[in-house]
Amino acid sequence: ELKIIREELLRQEESPATQLPELAEDVTVTELEQLLLTQKSLVSAAQSTQTRLDQQLTSLKQRPEAIRQQLAKANQQLQDVLREIKFPPPDKQLPQLSEAMQWNLSAQSAALNSEIEMLKQEQLSHTARLELLHARQVQTAAEIERSNVSINLLEEKLIEVRQRDIDLAKQKTQSEIEESAGKHPLVQELAKR
Known about the structure:
By secondary structure, the chain is mostly helical. Helices cover about 85% and strands about 0% of the residues. It contains 4 helices and no strands. Helix 3 (about 95-180) runs antiparallel to helix 4. The chain is rod-shaped, with a radius of gyration of 35 Å.
């Protein structure tokens, strides 16, 4: 997964800056506002992901010390259990109780061995998990940056389209005023409104 993320980041770095999707010449303000809203939603989701990744990274950076402490504790508990297994049961104890206690100690020993193995595996994979989390964090930051560029481009286009609509409305009003010239004064007054 780390390799895939790194390859994706390389492709993104090599590709040109984020551009707007193909928009129709007569794109409406409503369509642009919808695209803008979608991009802002994407940024919000990516920022949420970024926050979660930051928290996971902070937690993961603190994990090695916790693993060392858990390993030390589990190893100590295992040594204690192994010492108990070596001691013979008291003579006054029922054989069934002695056997049950030995099974219990054996089960504790197996559980502790499993826990120790799990902690060692976690310790061994820590660097790889840290790198993967950092790569996801970089990937998410790049997504946020690209989306913000798209938002800026969409906002510029929205201003452009709004200005176009204003200019068209002005032209239409002006042409109506010109057409109403020489007509009844009420018609001329309505055309000016």
